[in-house]
Design goal:
446 residues, Amino acid/polyamine transporter I, 72% helix
Length: 446
């Protein structure tokens, strides 16, 4: 019975990302890009400057969390195992052409993400914990003028917040590489997750700020090293990427071949999943910022999508350059990048296990934090306790399931969230402000 159910759900998922999800991202992202005259490109130098300014920023408000802690919490949720395993799965299923659609989704989706975070900040309200409640839950109620839409989004984000796919991948990786009992690994990881989440966004933000930058830079440096050693092959690889994005790719090695639709579906779906475009998670996280000028915080989302896409691109090019992307089924998607890096760097079993732990741990605590905030919106007294119990049960259960089934559930939740959020953003499109930073960007806040 479960086999038939998952088969049906996989067909629904394929239909959505192949026909509906692609159009939603391209139409709304394209509309915002043209309307703002390619804001994500012309504002990028100023966005980097905004990030640098936030490093020396000192909030005068006792409410909220430092903007960079919020940013790293957000980035911790984006940059995860999806950037290494999920994105390689898209390559193995859709072929090199999927990379092109990953780039398109990130480019157009960055403005969608900016829009949802801006609206989430605009309609945020103070809470009793000294922070803010905001995000898609609040701006969607304004967009549709009905309360039940916020409840629906809360429920979907509670499902999305229990990141069963990445939890499954991490427990598999650690138990396999380190020869440990899977149950003990699952229990130990859950304990660390609950420790972080119970401490709220202050603790989650501190953990992500300490762990994410160093490990991500180390990973990207190794990827660049591998790519540089394959520079003569890059022109031909890029030709293949652009060509197969519109023609599909024939069978090669362990790769069974793909059509344009399969490449498009996998590229768009994995990019949206990796960068959380249009999902609403990020708007809830960024709503906790202590920055008073919401445009400044919203700009950082474009920088976050850029970082996320850069990590995805590094993983994809390493898999493509070394030819290991088509080594399936002999080589599992979770081991492709590890194997590719091990050709140049020893000790990848240890490093990749640690790196995956850092990425997944930061993602899991960021996602679960959002789920917890949504559960509190559903029931102020018992919502958090009930959610923690259910989330723990689901994470433990799916750590023993096939990873593709866990990813399918996450993808379907994302489908429904994407439809509702993008509709709300479109209805409130006239309330979104796109502007470049002033010279003294934090003058008023100081």
């Amino acid at each position: 019975m479960f086999t038939h159910v998952f088969h049906f759900l996989s067909r629904v998922d394929a239909f959505f990302w192949g026909y509906i999800g692609f159009l939603l991202i391209v139409v709304l992202g394209g509309y915002l890009t043209i309307k703002t005259r390619f804001f994500q490109l012309r504002s990028f130098p100023a966005i980097v400057k905004t990030f640098a300014d936030f490093i020396r920023y000192r909030s005068v408000s006792s409410r909220g969390t430092h903007p960079l802690k919020v940013f790293f919490t957000s980035t911790g949720g984006m940059v995860g195992v999806g950037n290494i395993v999920g994105i390689v799965t898209a390559l193995q299923l859709g072929g090199p052409g999927a990379i092109f659609w990953v780039w398109i989704a990130a480019f157009l989706g960055s403005l969608i993400k900016y829009a949802e975070v801006f609206l989430g900040l605009k309609y945020r309200v103070p809470n009793e914990k000294g922070g803010y409640d905001g995000g898609s839950i609040h701006f969607l109620r304004k967009a549709f003028n009905v309360r039940w839409i916020g409840t629906l989004v809360c429920i979907l984000l509670c499902i999305y917040g229990a990141e069963i796919y990445q939890f499954s991948v991490l427990t598999h990786s650690i138990s396999t590489n380190w020869q440990l009992d899977r149950v003990l690994v699952s229990v130990g990881l859950l304990s660390l997750i609950l420790y972080a989440v119970i401490g709220g966004i202050q603790r989650v933000g501190k953990i992500c700020s300490l762990l994410m930058p160093a490990f991500t830079l180390a990973y990207m440096s190794m990827c660049f090293w591998v790519i540089v050693h394959h520079i003569p092959e890059l022109p031909g690889l890029f030709v293949t990427i652009f060509k197969t994005a519109f023609t599909g790719h024939a069978a090669l090695g362990g790769f069974v071949g793909s059509s344009i639709l399969v490449a498009l579906q996998n590229g768009i779906a994995r990019s949206v999943y990796s960068a959380d475009i249009g999902i609403g998670y990020d708007s809830i996280i960024h709503s906790e910022t202590s920055a008073e000028k919401i445009v400044s915080q919203a700009r950082l989302t474009i920088f976050g999508v850029f970082i996320d896409n850069l990590v995805c691109t590094c993983s994809l090019l390493v898999a493509l350059c070394t030819g290991l992307w088509c080594a399936a089924p002999q080589l599992d998607s979770s081991l492709v990048v590890q194997k590719a890096l091990s050709l140049h760097f020893p000790g990848q079993k240890i490093f990749m296990s640690l790196f995956l732990f850092v990425l997944v741990y930061s993602t899991l605590i960021s996602y679960l934090l959002v789920g917890l905030k949504c559960a509190r919106q559903l029931h102020s007294t018992y919502g958090e306790k009930i959610y923690l119990f259910l989330a723990t049960a689901f994470l433990m259960c799916f750590s023993f399931f096939d990873q593709s089934k866990a990813l399918l559930i996450m993808s379907l939740s994302g489908c429904m969230l994407l439809i509702v959020n993008l509709a709300g953003i479109f209805r409130l499109r006239k309330e979104i402000e796109f502007s470049l930073p002033e010279k003294a960007i934090f003058e008023r806040e100081r």
